[in-house]
Specification:
Blueprint: H1 14-17, H2 36-45, H3 60-65, H4 72-104, H5 107-119, H6 124-140, H7 156-166, H8 171-193, H9 198-221, H10 232-241
Helix pairs in contact: 2-8, 4-5, 4-7, 4-8, 4-9, 6-7, 7-8, 8-9
Length: 251
């Protein structure tokens, strides 16, 4: 019988509490003091990971087109609000639960959470992004020595959490890397779309450092009944993007 996944906010597994990350069933633990877990995390968060995330703006392109995110302050405000009101309250807490299920060997629970994440995507474009990048991640996992989970379709959020668990990466650091990769992709999209200079992009990334840290804390504090968001502007702009005449991005 599979163990129930630990709820976010619960005490860390004994290995993590002692300073070493817990490892999912069947995963090989790295030698003590090894940099391999950190390198694996950097690899996962790298823009070079071949999942095609660069092709998606998650409605930012429509927000720029309609004057909502037309400059650096406005684009930063859009990304910050998206992180605070949507990602930190739905995506990130589900990521933590997916990671816990993978660590516990709870395949049924993991599959249910994966399906729930996909069902919660607000529009067809956002849902397509989740499963297309997830499928690309699944194809890349053998190069990392990780077998893909038995989920079809697989959301990228779920695949990232699964991989962190299989590589023995702690939940807090893994989620921070996931959110940072998301924030970096959003800023790169803003640099192309507004357009902005490279230094403006760096200012935005620095401004998002505390936002990512706060999002991790928010996600860890939310109970099951607290998950949810009502970001109508995001859903509307994402739906409008589907029929936008000129587009650089797929969402």
């Amino acid at each position: 019988m599979s163990a129930a996944p630990a709820a976010p906010g619960a005490p860390l597994p004994a290995a993590e509490a002692a300073g070493a990350p817990a490892v999912a069933p069947g995963a090989a633990a790295a030698p003590s003091g090894s940099l391999r877990p950190l390198l694996g995390l950097l690899h996962l968060a790298s823009p070079a990971l071949p999942v095609g995330a660069f092709a998606y703006s998650q409605a930012l392109e429509a927000a720029v087109e309609h004057g909502i995110a037309a400059g650096e302050p406005q684009a930063l405000a859009w990304i910050r609000d998206h992180l605070r009101l949507v990602v930190a309250r739905v995506e990130a807490p589900l990521w933590l639960r997916l990671h816990a299920a993978a660590l516990a060997g709870d395949d049924a629970g993991f599959a249910e959470l994966n399906a729930r994440f996909i069902a919660l995507r607000e529009t067809a474009e956002l849902r397509a992004e989740a499963v297309q990048t997830g499928a690309s991640l699944a194809r890349a996992l053998p190069a990392l020595g990780v077998a893909a989970p038995a989920c079809d379709p697989l959301a990228f959020c779920a695949g990232f959490a699964w991989t962190c668990a299989r590589l023995g990466l702690p939940a807090r650091e893994g989620l921070a890397a996931y959110l940072w990769a998301w924030a970096e992709n959003q800023v790169l999209a803003a640099v192309k779309l507004v357009p902005l200079g490279q230094m403006a992009g760096q200012r935005m990334l620095v401004a998002l450092h505390p936002e990512v840290e706060a999002a991790v804390a928010t996600a860890a504090a939310l109970g099951d009944d607290d998950l949810g968001s009502a970001a109508l502007g995001l859903a509307i702009e994402s739906a409008r993007h589907e029929s936008q005449y000129s587009r650089l991005f797929r969402s």
